[in-house]
Every structure is written in C-alpha cells, then in structure tokens.
C-alpha cells in the first residue's frame, strides 16, 4: 500500500489536505508538508460554501473549536449590489425553494409578482440578512429546526455528504492565514511533518513520475504520492509533470484583484451575515465581514482597468479606514490544469484550478479535491481508471462553476459601459447558450442546469437569473390554470416566519461576541 504522501505548499490547500489525510488515515500513511518561508501564500480566500461544514465535521471539529481561532463569522449567502442598476440588490442564499402544487415558489412568484423583491418573497434568508441577524440563538440552537445537525457527535465515524446535496443554511467567513495556522497545529498533532524550506528541484524516475523533491537545506524528500499545493505556480503539476493549463480568459476576463484588510468597530457597524459583491465599472468588490475586521477587494479585468485605478476605486469604496492599510495586488490565473492528477502527482487548490471568487468556490474546489482523493486513493499500482475518474470529477466541478459564473455576467442588466456591454456578447462555454435559451421559456430545473456535479443546484440559477434582471423570465403557463390558493398561503407563511425570526434571533454581532469570548 501507498505509505508516504508529500505535500508541497503550506497555504489553505496544503494544510486542509494535510489535516484531512491525517484524520482519514492516521499513522498508516505518513504526511509531510514542505512549505517555503520565503514565498507568501495568496493571502485571501475568506468566504465559503455551506458544505465546508462537512470538512470540519470530518476533522471532528465543532464551531466552538475553530471559529474563535480564525475570526470566523457566518455567511447566509451573497448579497449582489448594483448588478442590475445602482441601488438595487438581491440575495443568493443557502436556502432551497419551497415547492407548492409541484412548482417552486419562484415559478409562483413570476406568475403572481407579490412584490418586486423575489428574494424576500421566496426565501427567509433575505430578511435575516437585511436585519443582520445570527442564524443561531444565544443558546446555540439553529434557527431552522428542520436541519438535523450533529447527527454524529464529533469524533465518531464521519459522513461526508458533499456530493449528496445537503443544504445547510449557512457557510462561514474566516481569516485564511489564521485557518492555515490552526490546521497546521491540528495536522502536526496527528503526526504530519512540517519542513520549512524551498523546493528547488524535483527528481523523477524513468517513468517521469516524481521520486523526491529536493529542498534548499533539508536534502531530498522522497514519497509515493506528491500533492501540488504551490498555488498559481503549479510547480509540480504544470512545471514538472508538464500538465497544460487551460485558460478561461476568453469567457471570464477578470484576471486581477487588489485586496485590503480593514479593522472595523463591529459593535457600532454591526456584522452583516453574508458576503457582499458590489458591481463596479470593470468588475466587482467583495466585502467579507470577519469578527474584528473586514476583508475586501476589487476583482477586475486588466483590459478595462489599471491596478492603480482599481486601488483608487477600492480605497474610495472603503473610505478613510483604508488609508493606513497596505494593498495586496494579485494577478489571477483563471482556468484549470487539464488533468489535476498526472502520474503520482495530484494538484489541489490554485495549482489545480481557479475561477474568480464571485461565488466563493476556491475552498470548495480544495475540499472537493481532497474528498475525491480519499475516494480515489491509489494502491501502490496507481490504477489509471481511478486517475481518470478523479480527473473527470475535478474538471466537471470547475467547468460547471465557470459556466455558472459566466451566467452572472450574461444575466446582469447593467450595460452602462463597454465592460458590461461586452459581457453580453463575449464567448460562452459550450452548452451554456442552449441552456440559456431554454431558460427564457422555462425556468432552470435540475435537468436543465449544468449536468454534472459542480456544487450548485437549480435554485442558485433561479436566484441569479431573477436577481440580475437582464433576462426576462416567462411565468409557467400552467399556473394560470391552477387556483394558487396554496401558493398565496405559502407567501404569507414565509412573510410571517421571516418577521418572527427577525424579532427572535440575536444580531450576529451579539452571538459572535459570546462565541469569541
Ligand atoms: C483575489 C482572490 C480572492 C479569493 N477569494 C476566495 C473566497 O472568498 N473563497 C474561496 O473559497 N476562495 C477564494 N479564493 C481562492 C483561495 O484564495 C485559494 O483557493 C486558497 O487560498 C488556496 O490557495 P493555495 O493554498 O492553493 O495557494 P497559496 O495560498 O498561493 O499557497 C501556495 C503555497 O506554496 C508554497 N510554495 C510555492 N512554491 C514553493 C516552493 N518552491 N517550495 C516550497 N513551497 C512553495 C508557498 O510558500 C505557499 O505556502 C480567492 C483567490 C483570489 C486570488
Ligand atoms: N453546495 C451548495 C452551493 C450553494 C448553494 N447556495 C449557495 C449560495 C452561495 Cl452564496 C454559495 C454557494 C451556494 C452549498 O454550499 O450549499
């Protein structure tokens, strides 16, 4: 059996991988992380998917075990601002749609139009986010009793439902560097070895597979399986194994970012329980509220905006609190490595692939890559069928998210400059235009979205299409022939429940202040 795993890279990908493998295999597999002291991690990556809770559960970690160490807060969804026109906003929440008489509430919304805020009419989360409420009561109970959480107390045999479509009502925001540090401790306590050194060369055998990585001061580090977590560099998978990188630049032009970390007085400002994506002249600005500061950054297309202009725009957006803060300029490699697994080398994290963080998918790709690696873990012989299956799963997840992100720009009603007008006519990934044309007549459903697992369900597509406002959606004809009484009752119930929850739930600041105490 395969015994020695060597991970190169100590960012979020490196230490998430080391933690998970140490937790999965214990001392039956040796895990070594080689990370440079000289090369910085990307320094961003702070909002997640709701399925990240399976990662922490698999490690036997409860929220109170890790959140206080990472300035973590809750994310009930994403608030998209100014994508339709200035002043307009809507939410894409972690909340499935209720079904009435066989149709999702968005279909009934298109038919009855109870108000101009579809998100407030069909989701509870929109009101909870607007009121900056916590998803948990001060005694820790979750607002939505339907969610049976903690089925297995931490530490017993774990289940990971990542690809079985659990829908938990929230995700997290956390400080990426603090999480990597926390997971370093977790992994080392469970036997992982950390070597702080630069990999300066890679030794390959006669097959071209990696036999060891050569470090500057600690000699050669041999292994059976090598995990490339070196970020955009792709030191092992691209540079050594020569796996080509497929650029998505033709369909997703945002290739740059400038980020700031800004301390804020949360007691005074409050703590919105969601990520905000505010459209700009050449991209969009993220605002991620952590406990004690905000993470913010402008993701933009360098064809339409210079780094200096982007930094000016970001500082103006944030205001005087940003004056003393140093900006972190980032060039993004958008696309994916053709095969994440080649020979005895597997790329996880930015080395595997990346699309702009509009739907917080970077850490989702890492988690998916790790979970799939355990599911496809090789025997000594490395069965090519396992490698092929792994590569298909990773390619589908990244290609599916790419298509979903392109949809955001095609569906955005904004057309007030070349950047937003070009977004409507730019090349689309194969298959999207046909699906797009279908959705004009019949709203997206499970069988008409990207067909393979990529983390999103049809309600996410409906949220974006209805929120962005650029694609007129027709009501479903059948609803005009039905009495609709049950739908009216459901709209009223949603309104009553939302009002009641806003009244009863604590503010997110109140809940987190207690948790971080
Ligand atoms: C602007 C931006 C915003 C983002 N926002 C989000 C978000 O909100 N949500 C989300 O899920 N994802 C987000 N992401 C993606 C997320 O940041 C990454 O997925 C995550 O940080 C993983 O990075 P990594 O560990 O793969 O690479 P990195 O953080 O770049 O780490 C690379 C590691 O490799 C080491 N290394 C490199 N070369 C060598 C060498 N020769 N020898 C030894 N060590 C070496 C470095 O020292 C470092 O430790 C964002 C990305 C960008 C660019
Ligand atoms: N796997 C789903 C993906 C998902 C569902 N709703 C949202 C909302 C936002 Cl803001 C990001 C991702 C998703 C999940 O994580 O629940």
TrEMBL record:
Xref: SUPFAM superfamilies: FAD/NAD(P)-binding domain
Enzyme class: oxidoreductase
GO molecular function: oxidoreductase activity
Annotated Pfam families: Trp_halogenase
Keywords: Oxidoreductase
Family designation: Belongs to the flavin-dependent halogenase family. Bacterial tryptophan halogenase subfamily.
Name this polypeptide is given: Tryptophan halogenase family protein
Species of origin: Sphaerisporangium dianthi
Lineage: Bacteria, Bacillati, Actinomycetota, Actinomycetes, Streptosporangiales
